Amino acid sequence: MLVFDLRWLLFLVLAGLMVALWAAYRLGRSARARTSLRGWAEAAQLEGAPFGLVLLDGEQACRYANAYARSLLGLPQSGRLPPAAWTQALADDLAALHRQHAAGRYRSISLPGEGGATDRYALWWLAPLGAFNALFLLDVTARRQSEQAARALLNDLSHELRTPLATLLTHLEVLSLPSISQETGRQSLALLKAEAHRMARLVHQMLELGRLETAGELELRPVDLLRLVEDVVAQVSPRAAERQVALSIEAATPLPACHGDEDRLRQVFLNLLDNAIKYVRPGDRVVVALARAEGGVRCAVRDSGPGIPAAHVAHLTRRFYRAAPPEVEGTGLGLALVEEILRHHGSHLEITSRTEGDETGTEAAFVLRTA
Q1: 0.70 cut: is pTM over it?
Q2: Whose CA is closest to 303, among 232, 344, 229, 353?
Q3: Nearest in space to 192 (alpha carbons), one of 173, 177, 178, 179
Q4: CA separation for the pair 54, 134 (Å, rounded)
Q5: Contact 218, 264 (CB under 8 A)
Q6: What is the C-alpha separation between 353 and 89, in angstroms, rounded?
Q7: Domain ranges within the chain, ordered by starting residue
Q8: Among 79, 165, 195, 346, whose Cα sits 20 to 30 Å from the Cα of 31?
Q9: CA 171 to CA 169: how far, in whole Å?
Q10: Given this model, what pLDDT does residue 159 score?
Q11: pLDDT averaged over the chain?
């Protein structure tokens, strides 16, 4: 739902624009300096304005639409309005405007894309302007999508926290029993600690995912990928050694610098390596491979583990999807976070896996554009 102050801000901005437009129109008319609405609009520098403007005559035909309005509504520069759901809403507003002698009509509309699904959202303000009716438009698709992403984030988070919270409450009840043994108490405390850590990771990853989904463009700068990967490999090496996993880097040097957000790319490699080390067997190998590719550098994390069944591979980047057995630690958000980061880098994750034959294993790969 759009907040109240946004409506008033929009009203004030558009009211000011209407006054300016009417003054320009009257001035141009009295000076006989304009021979057409198009010429008047171009002279007033409205064709490239950062808002939509449509001028409608008494027959509800479009006499002029600037570039913003044409793009948003699919209008011609002038002529009859196309058949669409929003044109009926416009007709209703025009009728109400004349019937009530109102100063203007405000409305939030959805605009269907291909297949009929809602594709874009807009606000409009309809008001009389001399012999015409002026329709002012603002595209609020990005804002609406941010609101939807925030709602989805809260829904997912509340759903996923139910199970660990229930576990915490259960073991707190156990610890409060007067006849509890020391061994049972130790087990309950260990489970409480594990669930608390899982909840902390879950909340952190959900917030990171939410920030990325609602963020604008990341600030991409030249990144030395080899140095970054060497740092990440050094960071996860103790865990790999603990699980008896051989960890190495294969790089076709020299590598060009890539456009990227270094901190976010660090998250990508950490998540991919963490997954690989977690799911392979003792004695398996994990390799980070960097190689030149068309237009960029191909980055891959591959392992010699047991592989992932084909039925799971296509779903691995979905939120909370887990192909691993329940006893393996994880939140099901790591690869969703990786995919969202890569989307901001103009890339995506490609996962391939083999579960049969002499060489089983999984590869997660993506390409980063060169700087």
Answers
A1: no
A2: 353
A3: 173
A4: 6
A5: yes
A6: 52
A7: 218-370
A8: 79
A9: 6
A10: 60
A11: 79
CB-based contact 75:52 (threshold 8 Å)? no
The whole-angstrom separation of Cα 32 and Cα 38 is: 14
How far apart, in Å, are the Cα atoms of 26 and each of 34, 40, 60, 210? Answer: 10, 11, 22, 49
Mode of pairing for the β-strands spanning 285-293 and 246-251: parallel
Pairing of strands 361-369, 296-303: antiparallel
Band the pLDDT of 49: cuts 50, 70, 90: confident
In tens, the pLDDT along 234-284 reads 999 999 999 999 999 999 888 999 999 898 899 899 989 988 998 899 999
Q: For residues 272 and 317, what is the distance between their CA atoms, to the nearest angstrom?
A: 12
Token pair, residue 71, equals: 């793009």
| Of 275, 222, 231, 261, residue with least CA distance to 249 | 231
Helices (H) and strands (E) in the chain, counts: 10, 12
d(C-alpha 370, C-alpha 134), whole Å: 47
pLDDT tens digits along 5-44: 455 455 545 555 554 555 455 444 444 433 455 666 665 5
CATH number of 218-370: 3.30.565.10
Residues facing 289 on adjacent strands:
250, 300
How far CA 21 is from CA of 10, 33, 40, 64, 138, in Å, comes to 16, 15, 10, 14, 17
> CB–CB of 209/339 below 8 Å?
no
Write down the residue that tokens 């006499």 correspond to: 63
| Tokens standing for residue 319 | 């939120």
**Amino acid letter at 18?**
M
